[in-house]
Structures are given as structure tokens and as C-alpha cells.
Amino acid sequence: MKFVILAAGEGKRLKPLTNDRPKAMVEVLGKPLVQWQIEALDSVGVPRDNVVVIGGFGYDKLKEFLTGKVQVLYNPYWSVANNVLTVYYALEQLDDDIAIINSDVIAEEAIYALLHVDNEPYAVLDGGVNAAEEEMKVKLENGKIVLFSKLIDPSESSGEYIGLSYVPRRLRGKMLSIIEGMWNRGELDKWYEDAFNILCQTVPMTPIFCTGMLWTEIDTHEDLERAKQIAAQLQEKKEKEKVEGDVQ
């Protein structure tokens, strides 16, 4: 199983911090976002050989930082589409089960531990938030995900998609075909969640809930300030667990 961090985005809403670096290299408490994710994967036992970071905008800086740490690939499609083609490139290059991780998420280690090999696709949701208009909400039917959309009425939403999901190898060809169809129709302004919506018409996805766990997504400067608070809590929690472990 490969853990694929999508790091090709420019992060325009975080300018001027992203004038000369990709969004994944924006720092929170002195560490780039992508480093927070790699360290979290380390902590739950994911081998570095199984981690793949896919870059695009500002690739040279990303590559320089990650050289010798994990595999880094360049997505040649990054400038012509939203992240649906970054997922396409990952599927194209990696003949494996794939966990998809948005690079603009900071989350506690227990959330990354939810990612596991399965025969069915799934997505990680927070069912305990009041998702706003901007958030990617999810609708369930019969316990399965049937729709990802920011347009879902909050009263009909079962939670917010937090940017971690999984596609088993058996569905690799189907997902490639779905995204190629979107590409042929000129739907390059779409997100990979739109490809999931097409998949869900025949293969509904399983929800994996992380309700009550610490996480946040970073799109804006306001989000970045919240991420600093969450990161500080995560560091404090980790230090406390270490002290308790030493005492035992």
C-alpha cells in the first residue's frame, strides 16, 4: 500500500507565503506541512518506502527538502487542472493500493492509523463538526458514501471529508477510466472528489469516522492560525504521552 501525499497545489489563498513555494512547504510551528504528515506516518509505522509525495508548483523546493526522505514525483498535469489530475497521475504511476492524503491537513497520529488495506474504497470523515458552505461535506445512504459536495445542505450532511481516503488496486483501472472521461469532457476544473462521486454511483465508499480527534485543513491565513493552535495541542499531547511512558 502506498501513502500518496498530494502536494502539487499552489495555495493561492495563502499568498504571499506561497509566492515562492508550494502550499505543502508552508510552515506551521517551524515545520512544513508535508513534514508534519511524514512524521505522523512514521509514528504509526508506515515505512518511508511506502510514502510518495506528488509535487507540481514549486517542485524544485519540494524535491530539495524531501530528497533522501521519501519518494517524490513530478505531476506534469498540475498546471492544467485541479487535483483530479494529481490523483490521476498517482494512479497512473503506482500499481498498488493507494491511500490519498491532502497535503494541507494537519492531524493527530491516530487519524493516520485509520488508513489500512481494504477491498473496498473508503474516506475519513469527521461527523462531529458543523460543516460550513466552504467545506467538503458527505452524504450517506444505507451507511455508505454516495456524494461528496460543498453544496450539500448541512442538515443532510453526515460529516466533513477531511482529505484522507483510500482506493484499492482492484479499482485502479476504473478510477483511471473515470478521470479520463472527465478529462475528455473538459472537466479539468473538477476535484478528485468529483471522480469519487462517479465511482460512488456503482461502488459506494465506506465512511471511516475520526469524530473527536484533532485535525484541521489549511486553505486561508485564518486556517493557518488555527493550524498553529492544533499543532501546539498535538505537540503538547505527544510530550505528555512520552512523559507518561517514561514514568511507566
In short:
The chain is α/β, with parallel strands linked by helices. The chain has 7 helices and 13 strands.
Task: Write a concise keyword list for the protein shown above.
single chain; alpha/beta; Spore Coat Polysaccharide Biosynthesis Protein SpsA, Chain A; two-stranded antiparallel sheet; 13 strands
The chain-level structural class is: alpha/beta
- Radius of gyration using CA atoms only: 17 Å
Regions with little confidence, pLDDT below 50 for 5+ residues = none
> What general outline do the C-alpha atoms trace?
globular
Please tally the helical runs, counting DSSP H or I stretches of 4 or more residues: 7
Q: What's the main sheet like?
A: 9 strands, mixed
Taken as a percent bin, the fraction of beta residues is 15-25%
**Sequence of secondary-structure elements:** EEEHEHEHEEHEEEEHHEEH
According to CATH, what is the class? Alpha Beta
How far is the N terminus from the C terminus? 34 Å
List the domain count as a whole number. 1
CATH architectural arrangement: Alpha-Beta Complex
User: What's the CATH topology label?
Assistant: Spore Coat Polysaccharide Biosynthesis Protein SpsA, Chain A
